[in-house]
Each structure stands twice: as C-alpha cells, then as structure tokens.
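Form 7-S
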Amino acid sequence: MSAKIAHLFQTISNNGVIGSAYLYLPQTASTNTYCRNLLNDEPQPPNGLVVRTGHQYEGRGQRGNVWQVQAGLNLTFSCVVYPHFLAPADQFYLNMAVSLSVIDLLDSYAQGAVMKWPNDIYIGRRKICGILIENSLMGSKLQSSIIGIGININQTVFEGLAATSLALENGSTYDIEELMRQWCSCMQARYDLLMAGRFFDLKTAYLQRLWGLNTVVNYTKEGEPMQGIMKGVNTAGQLILEENGSEIFYNFKEISFVL
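Output:
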C-alpha cells in the first residue's frame, strides 16, 4: 500500500477497528477492486479500513450482475478486515455478521428488511442492498476479507429493476456520511460477536431475518422451475431446501429464487 494513499486516511468511527481508517473517493470503478489492489501492495491496509465512493461505475454483485446506482445518492463502500481467528469452514459466519449489520442499520429507518440468501437485503419484494464478500485464505485461516456493500439511500428511480431505497420507503432524504458512520458501529457490534466465537447468536439472529424460512419457495435449478420448503442454512453457507421430503443442500449460484 503506497504511503501516498496512507496519509489520506481519516477516521469515521471510534467504536473499534471498523472505520478507524476511512477513505472517500469521489468515483472509482469498484471499491472492492480498489481494496484488492491495496492488499496486493505493501504495507497492508489497516484492519477495518472503509473505502467509500460517491460513484462506482463497475460495481458487481454475487452473480456478476452490474450494480446500477446514480452518482452521489447511495451508500457504496468496501471494508477490509483480517479475520485470522476464523477457520475457512466458518467463513459464512462473517457473511451473517455483515448481513445483520445492514439489517441493524436499516431497522432504524425502515420496517421489514429481510435477507435473501445468500447476499441480498430486501424490503418486501424489492432489493435495497447487495453484498459481495471476497475472502482470501492462508493455510487453515482466513487471511483477509473485502466486504463490499451497496445500499440504496436517496435514489428514487430504478429503471427496469425491482429495487427500493430508504427515500422511496420513507419519502425522506438522508445524510450518507452519517449512515456510513452508523454502519461502522453496527458492523463493529456484530464483528465483536464474531471474534468472541458467538456463532450460535449470529446464526439465530440471521435465521430470524431470513426471507422464506420454513415456507414454500419458488426457484429455478438449471433453468427448471422448482418448489421446496426453505429449512435454513448450514455452517458452510449452503441453503437447505426440502424437496419431496428430502433435504437438499445448495451452493451459491446453483439456484435462483423466483419472487
């Protein structure tokens, strides 16, 4: 990481490591890519670094879909952490902590936010947030994680997309920098649970807000329409669906929900 970059870091939160280093970029192709480039350099970026941009023009989601946002209207950022305490088999608990941090933030402003497995946040049938986590392994531990998040805040027009925003939900506009600060506090609280090994608490909270849990859901598998009862997720992050009386485990991208 270049010293020319390091001296630009500010602090946006004093509640722990999350947000203890902060960088705002007026625009960038992708905050995840920006953070990945920092990780590929020396010295490594500080733990908890948050990089936010006003305009991300090549942001992508879990399936490689372009995340369409209008410049300056949404909360688009990445956070770098070093969860060396997590075994690779437990890495989905980081996903749970991150998802819950967004839910915690949204709960202060809107009702009914739920997690749609694996990495989207919805209000009703409309998407308000996308999450993309990139983990790097080192032996038997996680070396680093880049947490990429895009939350629709003040944007009110989403052409051809089933999307919503806080502005659409409440008819208000929001201070994006203040919401950034609040997310850092929410994430720190969930990250503390993760570091303490309180996996049961994280999973319990996650399942309470998981869309479709214990209901019949529609989805496609290899292009074929299917129905099943959503039973939850396992520690590997696989979705558990009951099909014709048998439990089937699905990895990311193996099925697509039909809402």
